[in-house]
Amino acid sequence: MQIKFLGTGTSTGVPEIGCHCKVCSSTDPKDSRLRTSALFTVKNKNLLIDCGPDFRQQMLNSHTEKIDAVLLTHIHYDHTSGLDELRVFCKKRSVDVFLEPWVADAIRARIPYCFVEHPYPGVANLNLNEISTEPFLLKDILVTPIRVMHYNLPILGYRIENVAYITDMLYMPEDEIKKIENIDLLIVNALRHTEHISHQTLDMALNLIKRVSPKKAYLIHMSHHMGLHEIESERLPENVHFAYDGLQIDTETLFE
Hints:
Elements: E1 2-7, E2 37-42, E3 45-49, H1 55-62, E4 69-71, H2 77-80, E5 95-99, H3 101-110, E6 126-130, E7 136-138, E8 141-150, E9 153-160, E10 163-166, E11 185-189, H4 202-212, E12 216-220, H5 229-233, E13 240-242, E14 248-250
Parallel strand pairs: 3-4, 4-5, 5-6, 10-11, 11-12, 12-13
Antiparallel strand pairs: 1-2, 1-14, 2-3, 7-8, 8-9, 9-10
């Protein structure tokens, strides 16, 4: 399995508009973060997790020419507003999008022109597949949705084979933790050092990582309040890393 981190920033991105802090002013490319999204390549299938406002730029940056399916975590704009841009991947067939029923309803209302009986030529041809928290097969790939809470909003993380990807989480219900036991790689959000109403802090993410004990963990969905990548990385445990835009990892070689 190959994983490309297309974006690793929070909803405002980094640099944040109008901010001149040391992170937003940094010349280190690892401190520039588009909105959070990732591309999993499994069994020659490209699975996109979330499709936000930076999707077009992320596809150009990553030289991605094929999307086989999209997994949405929740409805928020920074995770769904790029869906219309999938039109370039719909020229020969529809793109399957997997999402919860209430998210599907919101998407149909947000971009109704994609779902009318006779759509305008060239619009995104999206096949919405409504899912629950039960495991399902995407082609021949086992995907396990993970229920997590984004403040009081129930959203989804995903386990794909032996990798778990969780973003925008404040906490995980106790009975869901078993879904990420015995994983090799945990990718999880850590917004900043100080508490936030709807996101994990760095300490909360590190505590979850310690409890689950994956071989490695990567942190995503960071704001500029996290600090400089180079400095903050030195303070992390040996098996934990800050992901950054453009990072590519291969699970076949990651643990050698």
